[in-house]
Design goal:
It contains 3 helices and 2 strands. The two termini are 24 Å apart. The chain has one domain. A two-stranded parallel sheet has the order 1-2. With 88 residues, the protein is mostly helical. Pfam families: DUF2277. InterPro entries: DUF2277. It comes from Rhizobium esperanzae. This is DUF2277 domain-containing protein.
Length: 88
Amino acid sequence: MCRNIKPLFNFDPPATDEEIHDAALQFVRKLSGTTKPSKRNEAAFERAVSSIAACARELLVSLETSQPPRDREEVAAKARARSAMRFA
């Protein structure tokens, strides 16, 4: 699907509203096939982003796990290492 949408569940600290909004924006961009809607479609685009962000927040709050929260820096370091190996 969208490569820029990252997992947001089970992190310490939890995902911020901005991160959830950014993921929703990427999702709507992918579905609509455009990065910037026309003036005519701008309101529908923004409504979709807001609606999906609210649903995503609800999902993240309601999910449960027995695993300890992951460390954001550790996950980012692993991603950088994978990227370095891939593009080296």
